[in-house]
Design goal:
Radius of gyration: 63 Å
Distance between the termini: 28 Å
CATH class of the largest domain: Alpha Beta
Largest sheet: 8 strands, mixed
Strand content: 25-35%
Shape: elongated
CATH superfamily of the largest domain: Mannose-Binding Protein A, subunit A
Structural class: mainly beta
CATH topology of the largest domain: Mannose-Binding Protein A, Chain A
Oligomer: single chain
Number of domains: 10
Number of helices: 5
């Protein structure tokens, strides 16, 4: 027969049997529940596997000991068996385990007899493992204690039947006690069988302006765990993003949110530019538009567009542009001079800045003294040069003799010049002058005044012609004036011996004596160096041979040059009646090609020095870095002294297309026709500015410029993802993140272990600044500790009253100490898992 707490299927004294039947009936009537029942087999001839199979076939399972009170009761009430009783503990994979739940036996839950378990000793002694557990019922020395034993031994099976059924509790756990069961309702449910659900006020779920709400109900309209998710129209955002949830206290988890107008970051006018905004809904809010313009001499940079619009996400559709001052070409220092553009290197060659030019001591500026960088990125004036300060060559008048301390092309400050007159003239003015620091002579250039000469003597067989004409050639009284020139000539067939002419010079003297007229003979002619002479009727005459007979009046001589030389001067000369040759003597010069004049950026290398570019000499050409050759790369000097090819020129190459980093944007001025193109070079002076996509930050130079010789001034930067700090799971909780790396918009959600509650936000989001939204990482809080009141005291009296009082006292104690415990069957019988609660000092 089945009995309540402490009732066993056994034989015993009649009085005790009847008393316990009455007690169980009374307790079951009071509690109106089904009872927890113990059973044991009438035989002790079962191994541990047989005993469990017998319990699972006829009842629920083998006994799972709950606490010391239960142990004390079983020990006092069960009949003593020589072989003792099997209970539901067995070693599974080297771990002592409650077979009904599959849970490992903890150290505080054990009730081993002294010196047990000693399976190791048993194995060494018998070679058989002791993997099953027996309970010493009514043992003389250790009553109620456990011992590990061989599972094949035959003992009495100790079983139990649970009172909980599958439908005992709808939304709760069926809690077993030793003599009762009750429903522990899940959060949000109540009623005897947890069949009732908590309701929240549906009127509190209001729809906000510019928004909508969508509610889902798991257990009934606006009941526990109902969720209402709000949303807003485009351009509006919720004041609280979390949904409203109906909780167990019949309250909504949040107040209904409002839909607020999306706000973008407030923009400001860029330096060197201006901004004009249109705000149809509100300042810097959704659909606001801002247009940026740059002042003269500035260009837009840092953004793909000059117009920004606030989007529904609360972010401007592009980065805010900058206004950068245009840059003029850099100015190099002057030779023998200086360029000053200020001390700020960043704006030295920027729009609006002015550079001044000056020269060192002894030099003066030729060209403008200042130049400003214009809005067209060019200088307002050409670059000047510094020239040495010199005085002008003092132009000598007639008959003036000038002698200077330095060559006429280098009359620097402190140079001096002295003056004198030719014979027959006297000085009119200062005899010397000095060049000042400012390049001016200290005295004016003087002049010469004629003194006069006597009449010249006319030779025999000669003719005289003077300028100005002599009034009386035979007069010796009246002088002629200084500067008078007289030319002599002989009759046909005669030659002049002496000066052909003479001049009246200072101080009143003729420059030479009158000549004589003798038979005509021309001067001796010699062959030019590196050449030959050939006179008519006389044959070839080499250089240095005396041949007076050959050079009489009427004879003609011709000239020629040897190989590698060419004639400079007349090729023929005739001996005239005036005893002079009809033309000057020529010379033979080596045949050379002219120095190939190199244009800008052209590098010339020749096989010989530039002054000795003889025939077959070669010159090769190349360009400086950043330029390419336009024309033939080399040329050769011909036998005639001409180059075989024209001198080439150099054309600027520019810079290659800049590399655009991952997650980056580029803006160039002038704009690139095709940033990926590597065919067309980008012109010198091109400025490119980089920006990163949202959620990334710039590592490296913000901008770079294409500079001579066709190289960018810096390498392209990198855009690295902004990362939030790494998060870990809270103690007694878990974390689940959307990405392995905490980058922009990564989300991490948090949950807690059973019986722990989340304190903080359930979801954190990584923003574009590298911070987690919604505050600090949440924590998992433990539930409050239960307060257990223990009552004691048992009334004394008759046999029946004493037993009844003891049962009532035990029942109260067990009800007050109930905690949850799950018991799972390992048998092949398809029975649902049962749940009962044990006290805090439970052994399970």
């Amino acid at each position: 027969m089945e009995m309540c707490f402490g009732l066993l299927q056994t034989r015993g004294p009649k009085t005790s049997w009847i008393s316990l039947i009455f007690l169980c009936s009374l307790l079951c009537t009071w509690t109106s529940v089904e009872c927890w029942s113990y059973f044991y087999s009438n035989t002790n001839n079962m191994s541990w596997p047989q005993a469990r199979a017998w319990c699972q076939e006829h009842y629920t399972d083998m006994v799972a000991i709950q606490n010391q009170e239960e142990i004390g009761h079983l020990n006092s009430w069960l009949p003593k068996k020589r072989t003792y009783y099997w209970i539901g503990i067995r070693k599974v994979e080297h771990v002592w385990t409650w077979v009904g739940t599959g849970k490992a036996l903890t150290a505080e839950a054990t009730n081993w007899a002294k010196g047990e378990p000693n399976n190791g000793k048993g194995v060494k002694r018998t070679g058989v493992k002791e993997d099953c557990v027996e309970m010493y019922i009514k043992s003389d020395s250790q009553p109620g204690k456990w011992n590990d034993e061989r599972c094949e031994k035959l003992k009495t099976a100790l079983c139990y039947t649970a009172a909980c059924k599958d439908d005992s509790c709808r939304y709760g756990e069926c809690v077993e006690t030793i003599n009762s069961h009750e429903c522990a309702c899940f959060e949000g449910f109540y009623g005897e069988k947890c069949e009732q659900v908590v309701q929240c006020n549906m009127e509190e779920v209001t729809v906000p302006y510019k928004g909508s709400v969508n509610c889902t109900h798991m257990y009934g309209n606006f009941s526990y765990d109902s969720s209402c998710q709000y949303s807003c129209e485009e351009g509006y955002q919720l004041s609280v993003s979390r949904p409203l949830k109906c909780n167990a206290s019949q309250q909504w988890s949040e107040r209904p949110p409002s839909c607020e107008l999306v706000q973008c970051q407030v923009l400001s006018s860029p330096a060197g530019g201006s901004m004009k905004c249109s705000d149809p809904l509100g300042n810097s809010s959704y659909q606001s538009t801002c247009v940026f313009t740059c002042d003269e001499g500035h260009v837009l940079a840092g953004s793909p567009s000059n117009t920004l619009q606030c989007e529904a996400s609360g972010i401007w559709n592009a980065s805010q542009p900058l206004c950068l001052a245009v840059q003029c070409p850099s100015l190099q220092q002057l030779d023998n001079g200086f360029v000053s553009c200020g001390d700020d290197a960043d704006v030295m060659f920027s729009y609006g800045n002015t550079c001044s030019f000056s020269c060192g001591p002894g030099y003066h500026l030729v060209g403008p003294s200042k130049a400003a960088c214009t809005s067209a990125a060019v200088w307002s004036d050409r670059k000047p040069r510094c020239e040495a300060i010199t005085c002008q060559n003092p132009e000598a008048g007639a008959h003036l003799v000038t002698q200077c301390s330095r060559p006429l092309t280098k009359l620097w400050p402190n140079s001096t010049c002295s003056f004198s007159c030719e014979a027959g003239f006297e000085l009119q003015g200062a005899p010397s002058t000095q060049c000042s620091e400012g390049g001016q002579w200290s005295e004016a250039v003087p002049t010469c005044k004629a003194i006069g000469c006597p009449a010249p003597e006319i030779p025999t067989s000669a003719q005289i012609s003077c300028s100005p004409p002599l009034s009386s050639p035979a007069s010796t009284v009246t002088p002629h004036p200084l500067g008078t020139v007289c030319i002599f000539s002989c009759d046909e067939g005669h030659e002049l011996q002496g000066a052909l002419s003479m001049e009246c010079a200072n101080p009143g003297q003729w420059t030479s004596a009158p000549p004589n007229c003798t038979a005509v003979r021309c001067p001796l002619l010699e062959a030019p160096e590196n050449g030959h002479i050939n006179c008519s009727n006389s044959g070839f005459v080499s250089r240095g041979v005396d041949a007076d007979v050959m050079f009489s009046y009427g004879n003609t001589c011709s000239f020629s040059c040897g190989p590698g030389y060419h004639l400079v001067g007349p090729s023929k000369a005739a001996c005239t009646s005036a005893a002079v040759w009809s033309d000057r003597k020529p010379r033979c010069e080596a045949i050379t090609c002219q120095n190939p004049e190199a244009g800008a950026h052209l590098v010339t290398q020749c096989s010989r020095p530039l002054t000795k570019l003889w025939p077959n000499s070669t010159c090769s050409f190349s360009c400086e870095a950043g330029f390419e050759l336009q024309g033939a790369p080399s040329t050769q000097c011909s036998e005639g002294g001409q180059w075989s090819e024209a001198v080439p020129t150099c054309k600027a190459i520019g810079c290659p297309a800049p590399e655009i980093p991952t997650s980056a944007q580029i803006s160039c001025s002038p704009p690139l026709s095709s940033p990926a193109s590597t065919v067309t070079p980008h012109p010198l002076g091109t400025v490119c500015i980089f920006s990163c996509d949202e959620g990334h930050e710039l590592q490296g130079a913000l901008s770079m410029e294409c500079a001579n010789p066709g190289q960018w001034t810096s390498a392209p930067p990198n855009c690295t993802a902004v990362r939030c700090p790494l998060l870990d799971a809270p103690e007694n909780g878990h974390i689940n993140c959307s990405n392995s790396e905490p980058v922009l918009n990564s989300q991490c959600s948090f949950t807690c272990n059973q019986d722990y509650s989340l304190d903080g936000h359930e979801l954190l989001t990584c923003d574009r600044h590298g911070n987690w939204t919604s505050g600090q990482k949440p924590t998992c809080q433990a539930p409050p500790s239960p307060v257990i009141a223990i009552a004691s005291g048992v009334a004394t009296g008759g046999a029946l009253l004493s037993g009844l009082s003891l049962a009532v006292w035990i029942l109260k104690r067990l009800k007050q100490r109930a905690t949850k415990f799950e018991l799972n069957s390992n048998s092949d019988i398809e029975a649902p898992p049962q749940v009962y609660k044990s006290s805090i000092d439970s052994l399970i």
